[in-house]
C-alpha cells in the first residue's frame, strides 16, 4: 500500500518541484524587469506591484499543479457527447424511477399553476343556498398560487381607480397566514380545548439531558398561555391558538423552533411595512401595508372580503362547482392592464433612491462608487430628515427614530436571532443559519431544496437591488464560490453581500421591514429591451418564473460601525420566508478600527509630494502621542480603507469600480480586484485546490461533485475489490478522477441521475462563466499596470462587455437555473396539489376535534414524549 502511494504521488511531487523552481526564477526576472521599468516609482508602490505579481504567478503555479494530470474535455462543444447526454435524459424522463426527479427538464411538463378557489371566497356563494363545498374553515391552507393571484387581481382592479385620485394611495391588508405555511399549527388552532404548550412542550428546564450545556431561556420570557380567553385586548389569532409567542426562545429543539416561529408570526409579529412586487423588468410595484404595526388575522384573505370582493369576475369557471385562478395569468393581466407606470411615483421604484451614478447602458457594466458613500455621518441624516420641507413617509419616520436610537445607544443589544438548537441535538450548529421566525426545518441534508432556496435568494436580492438602484456586490464565501463556477458551493448555508454605508442607510430608509415578492412571470428580452416598461411588448410570451417571498430586516443600530460588544456583526438580512435561510448584508464604512498591515505599503506611495509628507508627519505625531483612534481613523482616511462591523477590510482601489458579472445566471457585481480580496481572505490555495470537505471539483463539468458519489461509480464500474482504503484519501481520489475518460464522464451522468440534472441545469451558464472569468482576470491584470486609465474606454473592457451582451441575448440571462420551491414541493407531494381537497381535509379535522378534543390532547402528549 505504501509502495502504491509512492508510485502514484512521486511524479506529482517531482513536477511540483520543477514548477516551484520555475516560479522562483520567473519572479526574479519579473521583479528585475519591473525595477527597470518603474524607476520613477516609489519603493512602496514597487513593493505592492511585486506582491500582486507574486500572487498572480503563485496562482498560476497552483493552477498548473492541480491541473497538470487532469483531463481537459470540452463537453460543451462536443456534439457527440451532447447527443449521448440528450439520449440519456430522454431515457430517464420515461423511467418511472427517475421522471419525478427530472420534471423541470421535461419540456412537455405542464406546470400546476392553477389553484381551485373555494366557494366561500366567491361573493355569489354567500348569497346562494349554502352547500357542503361552501363551508368556511377557521383557517385555510397556505398556497402562494392563491395568495398572489388574489393580490394581483386586487391591485389591478384598484390601480385604475387610484390613478384618478392620486390623493388616495392604495394600501394593502396583510396577515402572515397568507404568506407562510402554518399547517403545523392547524391542530392547535382547530382544537377547541386549548393546551398549555408553553409548559407542556416548550419548557425544557426539567429535562437535564436535553438542555445539558445549552443556554435555556425561561419559557415565561417568550411564551404566554391564554387558554380559552375572552379578553378583548387579545387579537383573534391569539384566541384561536390559545397561547402567544412574543420573543425568540434561544436554544430549543428543531421541532419546537418550527412551532415557536410560526406561532409568533401568527399571533404577534407585526406585518411588513411594505410589499414590493418585482416584475420581469426593472419596474416594480410598491404598496404600504394598512396598519402594519397590528397583527390581525381578519386582514387575511379568509376573513377580509375586501380582497376577494371582485374575485369572481377573475376566476375561470371549469364547471358549476369549480372555479380556478392561474397565478401566471393573473401576473400577466396585472402588468399588461395596470403597469407600474400608472402608479404614483412613490409606489413605483422609489425615485428618492436614484443612487447609481452610472445610469447609461455602457457604464452599467462598470460602477464607480463615490468615495463619499463610505462616510458614516448619521447626524447629518437626522438633520436632513428633521428639516425636510416635505412630509416624511411612515418608513422614513421609523428610519429617523431608529437612527436616533442607534446614535444614543452605547451598548447595542443583539438584534438578529437564529433558530439555535440545544447542544444535545445532532449537528446542532445548523440552526445558526436560519432566522428563528421563519424556520421550517433543516434543509442542508436535502441538496436539491438547499440549492433551490439559495439560488432564488440571490436571484431576487440582485433583482431587487438592481431595480431600486442600490449598489451592492457579492462577498466572502459567495465571492469565492462565484470564482469557481458562478454558483453557490453545495456545502454553503448562506450568502454574503456588501454595500457602502450610504446604500445601507438607503435600504433601511425605504425598504426596512418590506416583503419582496418574486416576479411570477418572465420573458427573454435580450438586446436593450430590459429598459422597457413592464408589459410594453404584448406579443412576447411569458414563462413562469417563481413565487418566492423575501423579508428585508435591517438592524436597529447600524450607525455603529465597529465590533463593539460583538452582538451585531451583520447589518441587515434578506430572508427567505419559506425556510428562514438568508443573505447576510454588511455595510462598509470609514472607521477608527486598526486596518491590517498589508495596507501599510500604501502610506508612502505619494511621499514625494509636500502634502503627503505633511500628512505622514501628522500620522506619526498621532502615533507618538498615543492617540490610537485618531491615528487609525486618519490612516484609514488617507488610505481609503473601509471595514464592516466584523473587521473585514477593503481598500477603495480593491473595490471600485465594481465590474458587472453574472452570478447564478443573474446580473450582479464584483469588486475590481477580486483576486487580491480573495487571496487576503482565503489564500491562493482556495482558488486552485480541488478538494474541499466531501466534494471534488470536476473541470469538465464545471461542478463540485460529491466525492463519495464519484467513488461509488468507480466501484460500480470495476468491482468491490477495486475500492481500497486509499479511496478515502483526497489526493488519491483526485488522481483516480483525473483519469476518467470521455466515456467515463457520460457513464457517470447516466449512473447518477441527480448529478446529470445538476449538469444540465447549469451547463450553459458555467461554460459562460469560464469565458467571463478569463476576461475579468485580464481586466484585473490591466488594472495593475494602468492604474489611472478609464477602464470603460479600453478594448479589453469592450471584449468583456460584448461577451456579456452575447450571453444576455442568446442564453436567457436572468432566468432561473432551478425550479420554484413551492412548485417543486407540490410535485413531490401530491397531497398539496389540489387546494380544494386540503380545504375539505381541514373542515373534516375541525369537525373531528370539535367532537373529540380529548383525543387531540392525548396525541400532543405522545408527541412530547417521543420528542424527549
From TrEMBL:
It holds the Pfam family LicD. Residues 602-629 form a coiled coil. The keyword Isomerase does not apply. Residues 347-360 have a biased composition (Low complexity). Keywords: Coiled coil, Membrane, Transferase, Transmembrane, Transmembrane helix. Residues 465-631 form the LicD/FKTN/FKRP nucleotidyltransferase domain. PANTHER family: FUKUTIN-RELATED, RIBITOL-5-PHOSPHATE TRANSFERASE FKTN. This is Positive regulator of mannosylphosphate transferase, putative. It comes from Candida dubliniensis (strain CD36 / ATCC MYA-646 / CBS 7987 / NCPF 3949 / NRRL Y-17841) (Yeast). The lineage of its organism: Eukaryota, Fungi, Dikarya, Ascomycota, Saccharomycotina.
Amino acid at each position: 500500500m505504501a509502495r502504491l502511494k509512492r508510485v502514484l504521488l512521486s511524479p506529482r511531487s517531482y513536477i511540483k518541484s520543477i514548477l516551484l523552481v520555475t516560479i522562483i526564477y520567473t519572479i526574479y526576472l519579473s521583479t528585475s524587469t519591473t525595477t527597470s521599468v518603474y524607476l520613477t516609482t516609489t519603493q512602496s508602490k514597487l513593493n505592492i506591484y511585486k506582491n500582486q505579481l507574486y500572487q498572480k504567478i503563485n496562482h498560476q503555479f497552483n493552477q498548473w499543479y492541480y491541473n497538470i494530470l487532469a483531463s481537459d474535455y470540452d463537453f460543451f462543444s462536443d456534439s457527440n457527447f451532447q447527443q449521448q447526454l440528450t439520449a440519456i435524459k430522454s431515457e430517464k424522463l420515461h423511467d418511472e424511477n427517475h421522471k419525478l426527479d427530472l420534471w423541470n427538464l421535461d419540456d412537455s411538463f405542464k406546470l400546476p399553476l392553477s389553484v381551485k378557489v373555494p366557494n366561500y371566497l366567491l361573493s355569489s356563494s354567500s348569497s346562494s343556498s349554502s352547500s357542503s363545498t361552501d363551508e368556511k374553515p377557521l383557517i385555510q391552507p397556505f398556497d402562494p398560487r392563491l395568495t398572489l393571484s388574489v393580490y394581483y387581481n386586487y391591485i389591478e382592479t384598484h390601480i385604475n381607480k387610484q390613478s384618478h385620485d392620486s390623493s388616495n394611495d392604495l394600501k394593502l391588508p396583510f396577515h402572515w397566514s397568507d404568506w407562510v405555511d402554518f399547517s403545523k399549527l392547524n391542530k392547535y388552532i382547530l382544537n377547541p380545548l386549548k393546551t398549555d404548550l408553553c409548559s407542556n412542550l416548550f419548557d425544557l428546564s426539567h429535562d437535564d439531558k436535553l438542555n445539558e450545556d445549552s443556554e435555556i431561556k425561561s419559557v415565561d420570557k417568550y411564551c404566554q398561555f391564554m387558554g380559552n380567553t375572552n379578553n378583548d385586548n387579545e387579537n383573534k389569532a391569539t384566541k384561536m391558538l390559545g397561547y402567544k409567542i412574543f420573543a425568540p426562545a434561544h436554544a430549543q429543539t428543531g421541532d419546537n423552533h418550527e412551532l415557536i416561529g410560526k406561532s409568533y408570526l401568527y399571533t404577534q409579529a407585526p406585518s411588513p411595512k411594505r410589499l414590493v412586487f418585482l416584475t420581469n423588468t426593472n419596474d416594480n410595484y410598491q404598496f404600504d401595508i394598512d396598519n402594519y404595526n397590528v397583527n390581525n388575522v381578519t386582514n387575511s384573505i379568509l376573513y377580509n372580503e375586501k380582497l376577494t370582493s371582485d374575485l369572481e369576475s377573475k376566476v375561470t369557471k371549469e364547471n358549476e362547482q369549480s372555479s380556478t385562478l392561474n397565478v401566471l395569468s393573473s401576473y400577466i393581466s396585472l402588468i399588461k392592464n395596470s403597469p407600474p407606470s400608472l402608479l404614483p411615483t412613490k409606489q413605483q421604484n422609489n425615485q428618492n433612491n436614484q443612487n447609481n451614478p452610472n445610469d447609461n447602458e455602457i457604464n452599467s457594466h462598470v460602477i464607480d462608487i463615490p468615495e463619499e458613500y463610505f462616510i458614516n455621518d448619521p447626524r447629518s441624516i437626522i438633520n436632513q430628515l428633521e428639516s425636510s420641507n416635505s412630509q416624511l413617509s411612515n418608513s422614513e419616520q421609523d428610519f429617523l427614530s431608529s437612527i436616533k436610537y442607534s446614535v444614543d445607544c452605547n451598548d447595542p443589544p443583539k438584534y438578529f436571532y437564529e433558530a439555535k438548537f440545544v447542544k444535545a441535538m445532532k449537528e446542532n450548529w445548523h440552526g445558526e443559519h436560519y432566522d428563528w421566525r421563519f424556520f421550517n426545518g433543516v434543509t442542508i441534508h436535502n441538496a436539491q431544496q438547499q440549492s433551490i432556496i439559495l439560488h432564488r435568494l440571490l436571484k431576487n436580492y440582485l433583482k431587487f437591488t438592481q431595480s431600486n438602484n442600490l449598489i451592492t456586490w457579492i462577498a466572502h464565501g459567495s465571492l469565492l464560490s462565484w470564482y469557481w463556477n458562478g454558483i453557490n458551493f453545495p456545502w454553503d448555508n448562506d450568502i454574503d453581500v456588501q454595500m457602502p454605508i450610504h446604500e445601507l442607510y438607503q435600504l433601511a430608509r425605504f425598504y426596512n421591514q418590506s416583503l419582496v415578492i418574486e416576479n411570477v412571470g418572465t420573458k427573454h428580452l435580450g438586446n436593450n429591451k430590459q429598459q422597457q416598461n413592464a408589459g410594453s411588448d404584448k406579443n412576447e410570451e411569458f414563462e413562469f418564473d417563481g413565487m418566492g417571498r423575501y423579508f428585508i430586516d435591517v438592524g436597529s443600530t447600524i450607525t455603529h460601525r465597529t465590533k463593539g460588544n460583538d452582538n451585531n456583526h451583520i447589518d441587515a438580512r434578506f430572508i427567505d420566508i419559506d425556510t428562514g435561510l438568508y443573505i447576510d448584508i454588511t455595510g462598509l464604512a470609514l472607521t477608527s478600527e486598526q486596518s491590517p498591515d498589508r495596507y501599510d505599503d500604501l502610506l508612502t506611495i505619494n511621499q514625494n509630494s509636500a502634502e503627503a509628507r505633511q500628512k505622514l508627519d501628522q500620522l506619526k505625531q498621532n502615533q507618538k502621542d498615543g492617540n490610537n483612534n485618531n491615528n487609525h481613523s486618519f490612516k484609514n482616511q488617507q488610505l481609503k480603507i473601509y471595514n464592516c462591523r466584523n473587521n473585514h477590510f477593503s481598500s477603495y482601489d480593491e473595490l471600485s469600480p465594481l465590474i458587472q458579472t453574472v452570478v447564478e445566471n443573474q446580473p450582479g457585481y464584483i469588486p475590481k480586484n477580486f483576486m487580491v480580496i480573495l487571496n487576503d481572505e482565503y489564500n491562493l490555495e482556495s482558488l486552485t485546490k480541488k478538494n474541499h470537505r466531501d466534494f471534488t471539483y470536476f473541470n469538465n463539468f464545471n461542478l463540485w461533485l460529491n466525492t463519495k458519489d464519484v467513488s461509488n461509480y468507480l466501484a460500480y464500474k470495476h468491482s468491490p475489490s477495486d475500492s481500497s482504503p486509499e479511496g478515502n484519501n483526497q489526493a488519491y481520489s483526485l488522481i483516480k478522477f483525473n483519469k476518467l475518460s470521455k466515456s467515463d464522464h457520460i457513464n457517470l451522468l447516466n449512473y447518477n441521475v441527480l448529478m446529470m440534472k445538476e449538469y444540465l441545469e447549469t451547463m450553459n451558464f458555467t461554460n459562460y462563466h469560464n469565458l467571463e472569468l478569463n476576461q475579468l482576470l485580464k481586466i484585473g491584470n490591466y488594472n495593475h499596470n494602468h492604474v489611472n486609465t478609464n477602464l470603460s474606454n479600453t478594448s479589453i473592457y469592450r471584449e468583456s462587455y460584448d461577451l456579456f451582451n452575447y450571453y444576455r441575448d442568446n442564453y436567457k440571462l436572468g432566468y432561473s437555473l432551478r425550479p420554484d420551491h413551492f412548485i417543486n414541493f407540490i410535485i413531490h407531494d401530491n397531497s398539496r396539489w389540489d387546494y380544494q381537497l386540503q380545504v375539505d381535509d381541514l373542515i373534516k379535522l375541525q369537525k373531528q376535534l370539535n367532537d373529540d378534543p380529548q383525543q387531540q390532547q392525548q396525541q400532543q402528549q405522545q408527541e412530547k414524549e417521543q420528542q424527549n
